[in-house]
């Protein structure tokens, strides 16, 4: 009998693996609706939806292995990273999905960032100079952008490869009309050494300062949430190290 593996679990949702089946438990049915529709529309490899019975969505595992993990060296080849960049470009070139993204507008995002920076310093979570420097770097990401079909949570563990080919992209619950460079930044967070490979595969010029801005912005916004939900943003190579790399 297959064992039950807890892939991720916190107060908002949980994902379990039983053999070659992933069970996503999410009381927010809007997220599940987005995930199912996005996988049906996007022109890149995605998991097969096996069945759905709220609040559970069952999907098949995709072949291959994750491109890597945050905080660990990636064993994937430069060609695999480039293939990931090419797959992301295919997604971004697809027709826009008929729903907006779930992200915040620029004014709201800037206000949230400023508030989070104040809390990080006031509560002694991070040194003031580290927060101030990264708030400056993050400013580059706070600019108008042309929406694309965006994944919205394109973490390195959400892209699967076999050799030098992308076999599947998973976890589409945040998909929508979004910023292309946010996707590229999320994919390369903590793996700056592979940014050039991803950009080469993406096949067009990108503003690297904006990508670095998103690294700082995203890290500043999630550190408290991660700590409160059982994750360690201070682990080697993770969010706090990402912030330190900008000093």
Automatic annotation (TrEMBL):
Listed Pfam families: APH
Coiled coil: none
Residues annotated as domain Aminoglycoside phosphotransferase: 38-204
Gene3D superfamilies noted in UniProt: 3.90.1200.10
InterPro entries recorded: AGP_Transferase, Aminoglycoside_PTrfase, Kinase-like_dom_sf
Database matches in SUPFAM superfamilies: Protein kinase-like (PK-like)
Stored PANTHER family: AMINOGLYCOSIDE PHOSPHOTRANSFERASE DOMAIN-CONTAINING PROTEIN-RELATED (PTHR21310:SF40), AMINOGLYCOSIDE PHOSPHOTRANSFERASE-RELATED-RELATED (PTHR21310)
Protein name: Aminoglycoside phosphotransferase
Phylogenetic classification of the source organism: Bacteria, Bacillati, Actinomycetota, Actinomycetes, Kitasatosporales
């Amino acid at each position: 009998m297959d064992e039950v593996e807890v892939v991720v679990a916190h107060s908002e949702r949980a994902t379990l693996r039983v053999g070659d089946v992933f069970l996503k438990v999410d009381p927010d049915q809007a997220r599940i609706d987005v995930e199912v529709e996005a996988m049906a529309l996007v022109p890149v490899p995605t998991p097969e939806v096996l069945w759905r019975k709220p609040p559970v969505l069952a999907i098949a595992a995709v072949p291959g292995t994750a491109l890597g993990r945050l905080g660990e060296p990636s064993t994937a080849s430069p060609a695999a990273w480039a293939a990931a960049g090419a797959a992301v470009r295919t997604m971004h070139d697809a027709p826009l999905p008929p729903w907006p993204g779930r992200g915040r507008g620029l004014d709201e995002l800037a206000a949230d960032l400023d508030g989070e920076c104040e809390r990080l310093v006031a509560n002694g979570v991070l040194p003031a100079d580290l927060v101030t420097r990264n708030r400056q770097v993050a400013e580059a990401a706070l600019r108008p952008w042309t929406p694309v079909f965006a994944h919205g949570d394109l973490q390195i563990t959400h892209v699967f490869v076999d050799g030098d080919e992308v076999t599947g992209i998973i976890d589409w619950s945040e998909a929508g009309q979004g910023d292309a460079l946010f996707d590229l930044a999320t994919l390369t967070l903590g793996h700056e050494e592979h940014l050039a490979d991803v950009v080469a595969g993406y096949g067009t010029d990108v503003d690297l300062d904006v990508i670095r801005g998103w690294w700082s912005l995203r890290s500043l916004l999630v550190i408290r949430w991660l700590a409160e939900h059982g994750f360690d943003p201070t682990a080697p190579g993770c969010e706090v190290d990402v912030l330190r790399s900008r000093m």
